[in-house]
Amino acid sequence: MLSVKTKTGLVFFPAFDWAISATHPEREERLLYTQDQVFEEGLLDIDGIIEYKPDLATIQDVRRVHFCVPDEWSVLTESHLISAGGAKTIGMQVLEKNVERGFALVRPPGHHAMRVVHGARGFCNINIEAIMVEYLREAYKVDRVAIVDTDCHHGDGTQDIYWHDPDTLFISLHQDGRTLYPGTGFGYEMGGPSAAGTTINIPLPPQTSEEGFLYTLDNAILPIINDFKPDLIVNSAGQDNHYTDPITNMNFSAQGYAELTRRLKPHIAVLEGGYSIETALPYINVGIIMALAGMDFSKVREPDYRPQRIRQTADTAEQVKRVVADVMDCWEKGPRLRERNRAEKKSHKRERAVFYDTDNILETQMEEQRTCRDCSGVLSIDSETDRGHHVLAIHIPRKACNECRELGYQLYDGANLRSYHQIFLQDRTHDQYLVRRN
Amino acid sequence: MIIGLDVGGTHTDVVLIGQDCILRQAKVPTNTSNLFDCVWAALDEVTRDVPPEEIERAVLSTTLTTNAIIEGKMEKTAMIVSPGPGIDAELLRTCTHYFIVSGSIDHRGREIQPINPVEIEGLSSKLKAEGIEHVGVVGKFSVRNPKHEIQIGEILGDSFTNVLYGHRLSGNLSFPRRIATTYLNAAVHPIYKGFFKAVKESLKKKGLNIPIYILKADGGTMSLEASLFCPGETILSGPAASVMGSLPFASLEEETLVLDIGGTTTDMAILIHRVPLLDPVGCELGGYKTLIRSLKTYSIGVGGDSTVRVLDGKLKIGPGRDGPAMAYGGPTPTPTDALFVLGKINNGDAQASQRGMEPIAAAMGMTLEEVANEVFDHACQMILNGAAKMIEDINSKPVYTVQELLEGYQVQPQEILVLGGPAPYFAFRLAALTDFQVHVVPQWQVANAVGAALAKNTSEVTLFADTERGIAIAPGEKFYRQIDKNFDRNDAVALAYELLKNKCIKEGAVESELEMEVLENVQFNMVRDFYTTGRNIRIKVQVKPGMVSEYKDIAASMFHVSPSQKMPEKMR
Ligand SMILES: [Zn+2]
Ligand SMILES: [Zn+2]
Ligand SMILES: [Zn+2]
Prior knowledge:
Mean pLDDT of chain B: 90
Distance between the termini of chain A: 63 Å
Oligomer: heterodimer
Largest interface: A-B, 48 and 40 residues
Shape of chain B: globular
CATH topology of the domain at 77-187 in chain B: Rossmann fold
Largest sheet of chain A: 8 strands, parallel
Radius of gyration of chain B: 26 Å
Structural class of chain A: alpha/beta
Largest sheet of chain B: 6 strands, mixed
Helix content of chain A: 25-40%
Low-confidence stretches of chain B: 561-572
Mean pLDDT of chain A: 96
Bound molecules: zinc ion
Number of helices of chain A: 12
CATH architecture of the domain at 77-187 in chain B: 3-Layer(aba) Sandwich
Structural class of chain B: alpha/beta
Number of domains of chain A: 2
Radius of gyration of chain A: 21 Å
Strand content of chain A: 15-25%
Strand content of chain B: 15-25%
């Protein structure tokens, strides 16, 4: 009987009865052909590849990560809890050592969902990787985590959630924000004052192919991970870098994704985007599963795969090299920046607008972070939407010192409820979530 | 009257059943080197003096193919596989003469790369030169488009005794299982054909012109003629026969756990409102994972004859058997010996049982009676743990829609039906150890043969339609039709029912008895560039396993005869 080297867990949840709308890219059909290919290849029969039924994530799991406005059930559905739950299931199986690696092949996706959630943006409502990671931190005392986002779109939601967390290395590899939604993810976006350098953005030029992706992996991502020494590597395995993807402009392939997975060796991969549902997803997903399990994937290829035809130009290769050099520069600067910022106890403010394209909501945020010598500091977010919701959200980080924790509660209790519809407190030191409302 | 006959590993059971009772029953030793002889002997026992015209039919369950596969006694068979891209097909090799050829079909059934006729012609002459007569042809996604398998078959022509196509055997996806299933069906074909011919000729010689049916792994029957095409379907029909034999006694309202406690193993199955649960993909035998439709069964290595010993101060029962219980002259103590020590059985040498149990008692620091109780409880507990594991396994089967996941249907049996040698004693103990209602299947000694006799025809049809491509195909039925844009899931179900009805009637089913049901009915809108371009429809319909209706009252009569009561030797 066929068996594999690396025990690999798989949660497959195609949500065959869920769609954003009938003709939306996030529709029932999205993983249909992937299912056909995975079943026909017989991957689930292989000794050492184990399929798990997803658990449902709980509201408490969501509250560890998000401030949902006005409340959770207004911005999410059961499908989102299953999708996040599928990632959580894989995480648990890996941490329980029932499998060495795992893949949550689930939908709907989540990497565009930020800490404050007023609705859906970029097809995402809640951040399924962050919900999994924070659950694993709570339940298994996992500390340092690296999240590598290989979706073609900038993982701006995950970036936002971990912007101030020096224990989470977030690396996003994506098509340059000047040419694609959501228009962010530039090299200078390096993380908040206390976590400068642990957010790494790698904006690649359109038409980057296998060579460019693997060059970036070998010369930036792997060395950075090696320096960071994470306890856990998570891959947000979006598949829209594929040369046939209808909404992006990259030239990546199933072979490339599988090879990237083989070299990255993530403990947990979570599906994100990918909308070439017939000609890319079936082959990429089979390739990723086989690569995780340590199988030979050399014969996995798309029907129309011609590496020469999609090869990047010398010019593109040059651009990739420059981006990688910039990234390594940032990575080296990070520690000094963090030291300097934390040494001076002060408040850092950033004002910004967040657009929820899926739900057509415009949010303005005033975020305030107070640096601290002993911890990553308290964060408060004043958020208001064009629909009239106005909330204040206080986040006390997981390793907050007593002083910062107290400060968090003072901000929560002291805020004037007349100015806000709701005031939230997320205390990660005690896994607590409190709400004050009118 | 119906004859039910189950050829088991050690003996063959046969019953003759009338409208409402078992008229005759017999047991003859199984002669594995000549299975047909024992079938004949058993038939002879129950048909003596019976006018042949009064026998409606005979249903046979045979271990012939199961044994051939487990013992590796299969005919030299060549496999020609066309994998296209994906998993390395070399990893799926089933035999020496296994050839990977070009050609590729994708998940929607589109041809990506044609086959190479020259390559197949070369292969064909090579196989002929090597004297190979049996060939299996399997393509990846051939159930979505069987074109390549058929083309290869046409090139092979008439020069082989049997060329078997993968797409005809099951509509389910799984290229590796399709290879294994095709290989097994092709490789047991010659040995099965011998049996088939012997049955036909002997019946003719005896002037017995009764229709013969063969029991399948899914607890249903097929005609003898149909079985020649797919002899692999007869594997594991033995356990299926016992499960079917327990059916009349199962609750119509509840879920039932069936335990068949044998010598070395206990086989388990689940009934839901008297309908046996099927394996969603197919059964596994001798290391082969197949697409052969079968009951969901689970087997654990503990039974009445399991070897009992003490390992590191702990009691260990099975797996494995050294012989019969010591009470019956065996070499090592068994759970059956424990029953002798406890005085529950007394038709053997109880002193031998005690001699066997003494060292176990000493090693465990217990009295003889204590250790006998312990052995018995331990065996019962192992069976219950096995059952719990099977139920957990069934309940953890993933589902792929939000609705199904939230509904979270779980199997939760409330009753246990026990059959097999030590059934009454185990039933008593199992009842004490659990909250289940525990019943012994009356006449459990012949439940397998009764199960075979009462089983109905079963069948399955898989239909795949793609309105963008304008096709509807049911590869197992050699069915292909062009369809228009308006074809939808309702049309597809109606079409699948029609195909199923025809298939069943061809296999000897009675139209009025066909209880057809839909197993799978999904329809996806296909959207390209934000426009709906067609529907992708997948339908699976079946006739589920069950009992022939005119004999359903037999349960009542069997309940009222205690196992000790002797059956009438002569007919009424
Ligand atoms: Zn990305
Ligand atoms: Zn994306
Ligand atoms: Zn602090």
